[in-house]
Design goal:
alpha/beta, 4 strands, globular
C-alpha cells in the first residue's frame, strides 16, 4: 500500500506588522462649550507625533469617555483585535488616562502589559510626555 502525500495546511504564523503601522486611539471627555475640541486636538497631536517619528497611522479608533475599564469599550477592543492579529506595531494615545483613569491605573498597566506581550508599543502624544520619548515602557 502506498501513501499519497497530502499537503498539510500551513500552521498559523504570527503576522509581523510593518514597524510603522500604528493605530491612533482617542478617548477624551467632551466639553460642553466645544464638544469636539479635545478629540480634534488628540487627533492632531497624534498625527504630528506619528509624522515626526516615522509612524504611519493606519486607523483612528475612538471611544466615548466614561467607561473606566478599556476592555469594556468597543474602540479599545478594536485596538486589541488589531494587536492580536499582528496588524499594528504601535498605539498612539494622548495620555495615560485615555486608556484608564488614574484612580484605576491597574487597568492601564494590564492593557499596556498585554500590548507589550503582543509586541505592540504604546506612545503618549501629549507634548510633555512626548518630549520624554512618549513611550509607556
Amino acid at each position: 500500500m502506498s501513501s499519497a502525500r497530502i499537503p498539510q495546511e500551513d500552521a498559523a504564523v504570527p503576522a509581523v506588522p510593518d514597524p510603522a503601522a500604528t493605530v491612533l486611539y482617542v478617548c477624551v471627555d467632551r466639553g460642553t462649550i466645544m464638544p469636539r475640541l479635545a478629540a480634534q486636538r488628540a487627533v492632531e497631536e497624534g498625527q504630528a507625533f506619528a509624522q515626526k517619528n516615522g509612524l504611519m497611522v493606519t486607523e483612528v479608533v475612538t471611544d466615548e469617555y466614561g467607561e473606566p475599564d478599556p476592555c469594556r469599550r468597543k474602540g479599545w477592543r478594536r485596538v486589541r483585535t488589531l494587536a492580536a492579529a499582528g496588524e499594528i506595531a504601535s498605539v498612539l494615545v494622548r495620555w495615560p488616562a485615555a486608556i484608564a483613569p488614574e484612580a484605576l491605573a491597574d487597568y492601564r498597566h494590564r492593557e499596556t502589559r498585554w500590548l507589550r506581550e503582543h509586541d505592540v508599543r504604546v506612545h503618549y502624544t501629549w507634548a510633555p510626555l512626548a518630549a520624554t520619548g512618549g513611550e509607556s515602557w
